[in-house]
Amino acid sequence: MVAVPAPTTSPAPLLGLLPAVGVSFSAFLLFALMVGWPGHVVLALSLAAAYLIHRPLFRDLLLIGIGITIVSTTSVEADISWPMFFRLGVVLGAAVLVPVLVDRLVYRREPAIRFPWFTGRRWTRMQWAYVVAVPVLGWLILPSYFISSGAYQNWPPIQTASEFGRFFVGVNAVGLWDELFFICICFALLRRHFPLWQANVLQAVIFVSFLWELGYREWGPLLTIPFALLQGWIFTRTKSLTYVVIIHLLFDAVVFFAIVHAHDRSVFPFFLY
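Given the sequence above, the corresponding structure tokens read:
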């Protein structure tokens, strides 16, 4: 069964865009500005407004809000210590699992959150070309970004084999989670009520805000904003979670190599910058 951000199923009235913007803005406050109570107040007021304006929209924004709230219970700044490794895994897992369970068990409706791993569609030549282009572009761009901006210092230096393993697993696990939460939950739910461009911009605000707290700072949004928008657009076109995950993990593999290299230029010395 294929589930994608299909054409709007319950179009929200014009006023419905305001609470949706508020939910996205709450993520900006919580993750990018890292201010707790103002972000939660904005989120609560936005959900209350959605309840009054359009109940179907409220139910879907509530699922997004639940996920945002769960993520906000811990810092997502880069930390590869064992306690944070497990804590972040539990929190991010819950941020996906709880909305899914509410959607399926509480709402008692045809599930709105689905994960279309297998679509039965063959990849086009353009899709294959993009798979090749993404790591090449990452190889060309990421070292310059991390080193020239100093953003690599937002991640701790890697010194032991255990830290290498945790960092590699963590980078890829968060990349997978990004697609599950920001695309299959936030974007897909917003797409049920808003046109493609509006839903995509709203999910990108949440996505990029999270990545800012994670460590993609300085001029990082010049990379993360187009990446988030492209992932939403590609998901709409391909109808494939598998494809956007592969794209993300290929990019994150280069992120791993680039950050390790930025901390120690003798490691992975195959970049040009």
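The chain is about 70% helix and 0% strand. Try to locate this feature in the token string yourself.
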